[in-house]
Amino acid sequence: MLIRILLVLSYIFWCIKLWVKPWHYFRLNGDYFNQNKGLFSKLDIDRHIPARWRLSQWIDDPSRQPQRFPVFVKPEWGQNSQGIGRADNLAQLQRLRRLRSATDIDYLVQEAALGAIEFEMFSILDHKDLSKSAILSVTQVSNSSQEAYPINGIYNDNTHYQDITPRLTSMQRNALAEHISQMGPFKISRVGVRADSLEQLINGNFQVIEINLFVPMPLVLLSSNTALKDKVSFVFNAMLALAKVTKVIPKEQPRTAVFFQKLGRIRQAKHLVSNEVGNESH
Length: 282
What we know:
Oligomer: single chain
Order of helices and strands: HHEEEHEEEEHEHEHH
Strand order of the largest sheet: 7-6-5-8-9
């Protein structure tokens, strides 16, 4: 919680210093906001992912059954693993469907990524050259449970984060930034992927689990191997870069009511299926 407060306050500080309107934050990725649905649709964003990295996913329809298991069932707009369930067989999938039958939220079914290791890449674009990243951090995600396909997230006590950015050369960071740019010119983003190794990730052999464009938490701030002073330094540097890229948002870019529409979706989160449901044995 304190880290999140520091992120917000430092962003506001830099915005004031640079004569930027802090509320323009919600316009950063406004081009990807679905006005009709009032959300950053995972299906919309999925279409920007090159086919070689894209997992098969679709709006859940009881008449359509997955060809293989496990699959993950997630709300179309959710973030931070809220409402995600995993089904290891058809019976578990049917149970998830029954539990959410009273909601009006569209759910997606996504096939499981096959990579052995989960990575999260956090990026903020360079305000001088939007084809490059001013901030790029890579976090390796692990899980202390014995599950083969855990639902990792900041609310899962078994999830652990390790900052591996210092292990990367400048050339390797540029390669990862290029991968992200091929998915879209997201001014701020966190891209979750699975790959068999860090080397495979750098070489572009991975599958995208999810792209977060709305207030994505830089998971390096939760890593166990990063000193507090380094986390504070990262916050101030990242929020300076974010304020700078906020300042260059084109004036002609259409305005979207992202904040207020997302508030409505957050209220709906109270009715989401909990993460644990998908992990129950039948």
